[in-house]
Amino acid sequence: MEITSSFLDSWHGYMYAGAAVCMGMAILLLAYHELRIAMLKDYKAKYDYVNLHEVRYFWYSVMMVVFAAAFFGNTIGSQAIQEEGHRWFYVRLFISVSFVIIAYFVFFSLVRIYYPGKLERRLYKLRNTPRTSPDGNIMRKLAESEEEHHLEKEQVEDGKVHSIDYDIWLDDKTGYKKIEKYSAYQHAEECSECGYFTLKIHHEDIAQAPTLSDEGEMLQHYRCSYCGHREQRQVIVARLSANIA
After folding, report:
1. Is residue 241 within 8 Å of residue 224, measured between CB atoms?
2. pLDDT tens profile 19-51
């Protein structure tokens, strides 16, 4: 196959267009994600949306940038192709495809290892941003010692036995109360072995069930998705309450 100047000009036009489209898609994906977050007025809704979707949108944007780089790479070295022949055209194409494949695995690992730390900081900020009551008053987040008196009995027991946290926001002026439920299974911690935010609860075992008179014991089994490190943590489960006010 003979590579003519007109063919290369048309090829480059398509490659530039592909690179521009991919870069535009990367920007639009991130902009759409942030717009969806901004449209949510409730911070718990923002928290849940970010927790479920942010890594996915970020990963899609990264791959769009990779594709844009591959398209642009197919416009480099045209002089050599015209001088040396069509062989270098296919070499350039092969290099571009290889770049996409290698970049996929490299960035997949990088996103999985490094992005959870950034995500956890954003989630922490969303979780602890002061809420506003329907009357427009700034609400106060209750300390753990205050929470039990504002929860139903089932919620208290659920929080004791399972990896579930309840945040309670209270409007001291009107008494309005907002209860938010969070699951520890969805969140990563820093692994003591590799230092990445890839350590999550894998499963839990009740070593000793709590009773009305005695505390219980729960074993939380953590596993790092990066280095495979495992660790076990003992959690004391509070005695069951006979009555919740």
Report:
1. no
2. 999 999 999 999 999 999 999 999 999 999 998
